[in-house]
Amino acid sequence: MTPGPSPAPRVVGVALILIGIGATVTAFGISLDQYGRWGARYFPLVGSVALILLGVIEVTRAPGGAVVDRRHLPAIAALLLLAILYIICISAFGYLIATALAAPAALWIFGVRSPVGLAAAMVLSPALYHLVFFEFLGVFPPLGRYFDLLDLIGGY
User: Fold this and answer.
1) pLDDT confidence of 1, banded at 50, 70, 90?
2) Cα separation, 1 vs 140, whole angstroms
3) Which domain holds residue 13?
């Protein structure tokens, strides 16, 4: 008797759909900006809908003998840990410092080893993301509880 296809893709797909629905509901809880626009909701909503779509793709894809490639699991675990530490760091020290630390760490996980590239990421990532989200989209930056660089440079 040969084993049938693994139910894992369907389980993962359902999990993605449920997480996406939860994230969508949560994104609608984000306040509108001072002009009544969605500003801060756009990015989380796009991510939520992407999770739902990926879940649907995973649930509906044809079962087969796909082999799970486990060699990337350490990098996936490292990214998950980095994401958790990033959120903790944002709440403690604000967006700029947390992003300046997380951007080169993420690039390191993906194999970037150039000191110049990592240093550039440390400076350019917070600056560019700040420009896009907080200046262009009008999102209020998350401020640090203990210290925030924006206090020193005359930000919000």
Assistant:
1) very low
2) 60
3) 9-60
